[in-house]
Structures are given as structure tokens and as C-alpha cells.
Design brief:
Elements (H helix, E strand, L loop, with lengths): L2 E10 L2 E11 L4 E5 L6 H8 L7 E6 L2 E2 L4 H4 L3 E4 L11 H11 L4 H14 L15 H13 L5 E5 L7 H16 L3 E5 L3 H7 L2 E6 L2 E6 L1 H8 L3 E6 L4 H9 L4 E7 L2 E6 L7 H9 L6 E4 L4 H8 L6
Parallel strand pairs: 3-8, 3-9, 6-7, 7-8
Antiparallel strand pairs: 1-2, 1-4, 4-5, 9-10, 11-13, 11-14, 12-13
Helix pairs in contact: 3-4, 4-5, 5-6, 8-11
Length: 309
Amino acid sequence: MIIQTINLTKRYGKLVALDNLHLNIEEGECFGYIGPNGAGKTTTIRILATLLQPTWGEARVCGHVVGYESRKIRPLIGYVPDFFGAYEDMVVQEYLEFFAAAYNITGRKRDQIVGDVLELTDLSYKRDALVDSLSRGMKQRLSIARVLLHDPKVLFLDEPASGLDPRARIEIRALLKELHRMGKTILISSHILPELADLCTSIGIIERGEMRFKGSVTEALRRARVGSVVHVKTPDDLERARQAIINLPGVQTAEVRDSMVVASLESDTGDFSFIAQAMLAQSLRIHEIKQEEINLETAFMRLTQGIVQ
């Protein structure tokens, strides 16, 4: 187990940021950490990155205990906060050389490593640009380049796509996929849920400092599915179609929305032939009938109660 927390708790006076959190992440996982603002995501990441001490409980990274063995943990991890840090008056290469020197990487080895991370993060053409002149997306890529200099086993990324435009988000996601392919263990918190579904091998949903769900994206979607929502498209009178559907056994609601009838069913059998039969009995034609997909955003809303600190 490369990351493990046992009864991890963090209090700020009467405020409970983390409440007996249990978290296990295997080596090589890309773990998506999801929760509303104030749920405890950043607090968890800062404790694992040895920047905060827990009130009680235990956190381990690569087998080392946070607090007692933090000096052994730090060379093994890379932490990317949600906003870029200081040193914006440096040029990109100078910025990376400065941090490489902090890890005692010197001489030709430093030149080679800096060149490698610039290429990996697609910033080679910006090596002589001022950090302050970079876009938000480029600064995030530079921040990731900085934490890769010492080749860490584990990466902690706190909202790395926050405030980025769509193209920059795609570039960050592609970079993270490549890092995961290279064998890095990644813990990433994000509010951009569709991107986590595409990127992560497993997810955890946290609310009010408590873990509500941990497992695969597929399992989260399965648990979030309650009943079924069906979209029916007809070229005929929509109100007549709605009336034909609403009176059927097992149909909870039916309403006209976006030029179709949207019906909520009590069960999730996947068999909608009874709807088609009822419409045909009323001489109503069917152009399309399909089940509404449950995505990660829907799962998040159903597996949490929207409660924040």
C-alpha cells in the first residue's frame, strides 16, 4: 500500500476538517479525489505531502509515517498546489535549475534532467521565457515539471485544472495520462468530474471530512443509478405521448422537455418495450427511445448530500 491513512483526523478548534478518514491507494493507481468545497480534500493532500500535522490518526506514504518520518517521505513525492508559487521574475530554465539544485542535482546531470522535463511537459520552446509571461496552463505544466525533477514515486495534485481553458485542460490531462503510463502513483483532486472519469483508475468521494465512497468509476455509477430515465422522441403530439406514458405502471413522472418526453421509471430493467407498445396503441410514432446515461457528475450528486463545512 503506497498511501494509507488510519483514523486520520484534523481539527481546527471546533471545526473538523477530516473525521477518522480511512484511505488506501495501491502503487500505480491514479486516484481521483472528489468532494465539495470544504470537504477536506486539500487538508488530506497537505497532510500526505508533510505540510500539515494531523490532530490524531496516522498517514503513511511509501511505508513511512507522516510526522515521524517526513524527511524520508519528501524525496519520494511531488506536490502541485492549485495555484502557482513565486519566482515569477526567473526564466523557465533558470527556475527549474534552481529547484534541481535544491535536490542536489548538479552539473551535466542537471542539464539533462531539466531538458527532459521540459520536453515531457512540452515547454522546451519556452525555456528562455519569463515565468511571469506564461499563461495559466503553461504555469501549471511548469509546476508539474518542477516536481518531476527528482523523479518522485508519488504525485499529489490539488485541482491542477482549476481556472484553465478547455485546450489547457486537455493538455494537462494528456500529461497526467503519460505520467500514469510511466508508473507514477497519482492522487488528484478536481471539480472537473468528466475528466476524472477518463483519467482515474479509482475515485474517492469525500464530504464533511468523511469518505462516502471509494472504488472504481464503474462502481460509483452503478451505486448512483436509482430507477431509470428514458427519453422518447416522436413526430406526433408530445402532450398525447406524455399522457400515454404517464398512466403506465412503473412510471413515476413524465414531462415534455426539449421536444421529447422524458419519463422517470421506478426500476432499471432496460426494457422499454411497454412504452413503445402503449404509444403504438395510441397511434403515436416513435423516432427514438433511449435511456439517459448516468455520468460521474450525477453519481457525485447522488452519493453526497451537498453538505459542506
